[in-house]
Amino acid sequence: MANNLLMILGPTASGKTRLGVEVTRELGGEIVSADSRQVYRGLDIGAGKDLHEYSSGGPAVAYHLIDVVGLDFEFSVFEYQKRFFSVFEDLQVRGIPAIVVGGSGLYLDAVLNDCRMVDVPPDPALREGLKPLSNEALVRRLQVLRPVHNTTDLEDRERLVRAIEIARYSADHEPEPGPERKPVVLGVRWDRRVLRSRIRERLASRLQHGLIDEVRDLHDQGVSWEKLHFLGLEYRFVSDFLRGRIKNENDLRQKLAAAIIGFAKRQETWFRRMQRRGTEIHWIERGNVNQALQVIESCGGLVSRSDHA
User: Fold this and answer.
1) In whole angstroms, how far apart are CA 41 and each of 47, 68, 133, 167, 224?
2) How far, in Å, CA of 278 to CA of 37, rounded?
């Protein structure tokens, strides 16, 4: 079958969105976000939606799976994959290339996974049996059942128990195949020193453009500090600043920049793991659009509207 899916991945601040928009314009496609925070309404500056990029510099580019749920909704990888498959199948029917853009490892894996994830019902007996166990014991049990997992599952007991429940159920239930996909995967790569500089510059810009006010407003609207803690580094560190746990904005900037740089390293580790497990990633230096288009062409291109005419 012809290539029918393009994925553009990369660490935070690598310019995935900019490259995705430029490539999408060239191919006549639509973007499907693979970002675990951009699904939420209200997470704008901290989640780096940068929605202006979809409409500046040329014709507006359509996008999906951004601003689709409120913060009261517990969005999961299962929910993401279900919605992604629905969007993908619609684009296929309309003959429009799907351009997946993001850096959330579990979401990227959900896109590439051959099978549909299983909708796991609660297991009261299992939950009762896990009650006496410490968090450390629960972490060990999850690591045996599913060595690769979302790190946020390890930081909250309720999420930890749910992750074990899902892993146990999935081991005993055969999943259904997903829609046919033949992807081309591009990765945006920068020299590590340059990427660190980009991270610091972007953070400074976000702070200047109201990141602290965004987090304060979310809390004033009823989003708890605990919820903000699980919405990513920007929301976690700014929440600590607003609660007096970080003494000034300079400390906030320094600590948050270091944490984001560490996160970027973990993303790169995830991408290397994807490669070891068989995903071929074509690395695009500094997000060069011409190189990206050349790679896509060398791989056979993508199905387009004209191919369905």
Assistant:
1) 10, 7, 36, 29, 16
2) 27
Write out pLDDT tens, residues 96-107: 999 999 999 999
Q: At what angle do helices 233-242 and 211-220 cross, to 10 degrees?
A: 80
CA distance 142 to 132: 15
The pLDDT tens digits of the residues spanning 205-253 come to: 999 999 999 999 999 999 999 999 999 999 999 999 999 999 999 999 9
From residue 285, alpha-carbon distances to 25, 174, 190, 243, 273 in Å are 20, 40, 6, 40, 20
Q: What predicted TM-score, i.e. pTM, was given to this entire model?
A: 0.86
Alpha helices in the chain (DSSP H): 16-27, 77-94, 105-112, 124-130, 135-145, 157-172, 192-208, 211-220, 225-229, 233-242, 249-276, 289-298, 305-308
Residue 161's closest CA among 190, 132, 189, 130? 130
Residue 212: closest CA among 192, 240, 188, 232: 240
**Would you call 88 exposed, middle or buried from its count of C-beta atoms within 10 A (0-12, 13-18, 19+)?**
buried
Instruction: Name residues whose C-beta falls within 8 Å of residue 233's C-beta, 6 or more positions apart in sequence.
Output: 256, 259, 260, 263
**Partners of 187 in beta bridges:** 9, 283
